[in-house]
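Entry 14. Ran structure prediction on the chain below.
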Amino acid sequence: MKFKNFKQILFAVVFSIITIGILTFLTYKTEFGVFLIASFGSTMVLLFGYPESPFAQPKNIFFGHFVTATVGVIFVNFVPLPLYLSIPLAVGIAVGLMILLNVTHPPAGGNPVIVLMGSASYDYLLNPIIFGCIILIVFGVILNRFIAKKKYPLA
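Output, structure tokens:
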């Protein structure tokens, strides 16, 4: 294994621990609400493992998560179908919207599943989605640009 690859792996490990650690702390040790969702773990792979990917850019992280969670919340509130029908429909529509809007972020594809299985309310869009994504992006910029010395975000 090349040293450069080891260094990149180490950065991804440490930065993921720091970022998810902050979200976990805010979720479980404060009264500010929920900041952590399962799909944010997958976001770490792109944000710190492959920050040069278009799917890892701030616009894609924020709007990918927001669009897909919004689809899930709409389904919870307005689509009276059983879960075995609403989950695949919501995921398909959410994926299509991400592609259409040019905000594709693959980890966000799981958000409708999370939202529908948990019957999440509109509040879910604010916290954890909006506030959680802002924290992810801020840490992504700080850790990638200033610590790892990578060009992030790309644009």
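The helical segments are 3-29, 38-49, 58-78, 83-100, 111-118, 123-147. Will compare against last week's run tomorrow.
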